[in-house]
Amino acid sequence: MDDTQRPVTPDGVRQGGARGERERAGIGPLALKQSGTVEHAYQMLDLLKMMFQSAETSFTRWQETLELAEKHRVFELVPPDKPYGSLQAMVKAELGVTIEESKRIVVFRTAQARAMDPLELAKPGEIGRGRGSDTTSNDERGADYQTARIARDRPDILQRMQAGEYDSVRRAALDAGVIKPLIRLQATPEAFARAARKHLTADQIEQLVEMLEAGE
Questions:
Q1: Rounded Cα–Cα distance for residues 7 and 17 (Å)
Q2: What 3-state class would DSSP assign to 194?
Q3: Which of 18, 62, 70, 90 qualifies as a cystine partner to 106, CB 3.0-4.6 A?
């Protein structure tokens, strides 16, 4: 007998079978289920799928959800007859993407969502809307602030974000000039020279040489 032929209880849950077991696992809060049980694992798996599908899920929240699934070893419990065996295999089977692909999708989706409803900042030199200048804390320079700066200073980039051309707020902020790229270097003249040639324009290199000669 397959799952579709099994009797259904008054509350609509099929009796017996893997499908019925998974449906029953969704009844009641996750906090009341014991970690290490199939019931807990199935509800954790449903949480994973729900978080991935939600446009409200941030990258940090998605990372935490993946770590929670790893912590509880969900992939070692479901499906009961043949567990997935690894988080990667479980994500691929349930979501149709790899773990890294899922992260890129979440980042892309949140970047586009932020672009649709950016915060409103005061214009340069204007007092109001919660900010008096561009002097901000580290927290303010997060993705929401960067998107708001793009909306204010580079509406053309904002439109491209809304169209889905950027896979992250950071990439859009770099193109908009809201943030500057950071690089790590070995403390050697050769490393600095290579970085200057790669990242600076000819005029900027000339300016750098003048500053070094002046001892600035």
A1: 11
A2: helix
A3: 62
| DSSP-based three-state secondary structure for 172 | helix
Residues sharing a CB contact under 8 Å with residue 154, sequence separation 6 or more, in sequence order: 176, 177, 178
Cβ-Cβ contacts under 8 Å for 101 (sequence gap 6 or more): none
Q: Supply the DSSP symbol for 155.
A: H
Please check whether residue 161 is in contact with residue 115, taking contact to mean a CB–CB distance below 8 angstroms: yes
Q: At 67, is the pLDDT very low, low, confident or very high (cuts 50, 70, 90)?
A: very high
- Averaged pLDDT for residues 11-32: 69
172 with 157: CB under 8 angstroms? yes
| Those residues with Cβ within 8 angstroms of residue 181's Cβ, 6 or more apart along the chain or in another chain | 174, 199
- Give the relative orientation of helices 87-95 and 38-53 as an angle to the nearest 10 degrees: 60
Give the integer Cα–Cα distance in Å for 38 and 45: 10
Whether the pLDDT of residue 10 is over 60: the answer is no
Write out the two tokens for 144. 């929401």
Return the closest-CA partner of residue 88 out of 69, 110, 108, 64.
69
